[in-house]
Amino acid sequence: MISVDWTLGLQFLNFIILLVVLNKLLYRPIKKIISERAETISDSLATAKNLEADINEKMQRYQQQLSDAKILANNERNNLKKAAHEEEAKVLLEAQGKAATRMQAIKAQVGKEAAQASEILKNGAGSLAGQIATRILGREVA
């Protein structure tokens, strides 16, 4: 059975002394370490947030520069296509002009040769007809 006497006071005093000693030797240093660790963690989190904000800003700048470069490349490509189409039209027009000139020259030459052939045929048609008639009739036609 528990009896209330002077040992209870002694136990209470022992408990208080133990609390004071543990507070000085154990609890305060642990609280100090925990608060330092919390401060270090909060500083690291702040640094991480700053780095993340910096990275986000740089990514936005990079995306903007990439977008600008794409726009410039598209504009340059469109300009080059336009210049190529203009050059193509110019070359085609020149080639068509040369082809038309060459075609006129060929037509003139063919017309000239046809006229010469027609003249030769007109000149030789009478004698050729006489030769054919002589062979068919078997006698000389006058």
Automatic annotation (TrEMBL):
<dbReference type="GO" id="GO:0046933">
    <property type="term" value="F:proton-transporting ATP synthase activity, rotational mechanism"/>
</dbReference>
<comment type="subunit">
    <text>F-type ATPases have 2 components, F(1) - the catalytic core - and F(0) - the membrane proton channel. F(1) has five subunits: alpha(3), beta(3), gamma(1), delta(1), epsilon(1). F(0) has three main subunits: a(1), b(2) and c(10-14). The alpha and beta chains form an alternating ring which encloses part of the gamma chain. F(1) is attached to F(0) by a central stalk formed by the gamma and epsilon chains, while a peripheral stalk is formed by the delta and b chains.</text>
</comment>
<feature type="coiled-coil region">
    <location>
        <begin position="45"/>
        <end position="90"/>
    </location>
</feature>
<dbReference type="InterPro" id="IPR050059">
    <property type="entry name" value="ATP_synthase_B_chain"/>
</dbReference>
<feature type="transmembrane region" description="Helical">
    <location>
        <begin position="6"/>
        <end position="27"/>
    </location>
</feature>
<dbReference type="GO" id="GO:0045259">
    <property type="term" value="C:proton-transporting ATP synthase complex"/>
</dbReference>
<protein>
    <recommendedName>
        <fullName>ATP synthase subunit b</fullName>
    </recommendedName>
</protein>
<keyword id="KW-0406">Ion transport</keyword>
<dbReference type="GO" id="GO:0005886">
    <property type="term" value="C:plasma membrane"/>
</dbReference>
<keyword id="KW-0812">Transmembrane</keyword>
<comment type="function">
    <text>F(1)F(0) ATP synthase produces ATP from ADP in the presence of a proton or sodium gradient. F-type ATPases consist of two structural domains, F(1) containing the extramembraneous catalytic core and F(0) containing the membrane proton channel, linked together by a central stalk and a peripheral stalk. During catalysis, ATP synthesis in the catalytic domain of F(1) is coupled via a rotary mechanism of the central stalk subunits to proton translocation.</text>
</comment>
<keyword id="KW-0066">ATP synthesis</keyword>
<dbReference type="GO" id="GO:0046961">
    <property type="term" value="F:proton-transporting ATPase activity, rotational mechanism"/>
</dbReference>
<dbReference type="Pfam" id="PF00430">
    <property type="entry name" value="ATP-synt_B"/>
</dbReference>
<dbReference type="GO" id="GO:0012505">
    <property type="term" value="C:endomembrane system"/>
</dbReference>
<keyword id="KW-0472">Membrane</keyword>
<dbReference type="InterPro" id="IPR002146">
    <property type="entry name" value="ATP_synth_b/b'su_bac/chlpt"/>
</dbReference>
<keyword id="KW-0138">CF(0)</keyword>
<keyword id="KW-0813">Transport</keyword>
<keyword id="KW-1133">Transmembrane helix</keyword>
<comment type="function">
    <text>Component of the F(0) channel, it forms part of the peripheral stalk, linking F(1) to F(0). The b'-subunit is a diverged and duplicated form of b found in plants and photosynthetic bacteria.</text>
</comment>
<keyword id="KW-1003">Cell membrane</keyword>
<keyword id="KW-0175">Coiled coil</keyword>
<keyword id="KW-0375">Hydrogen ion transport</keyword>
<comment type="similarity">
    <text>Belongs to the ATPase B chain family.</text>
</comment>
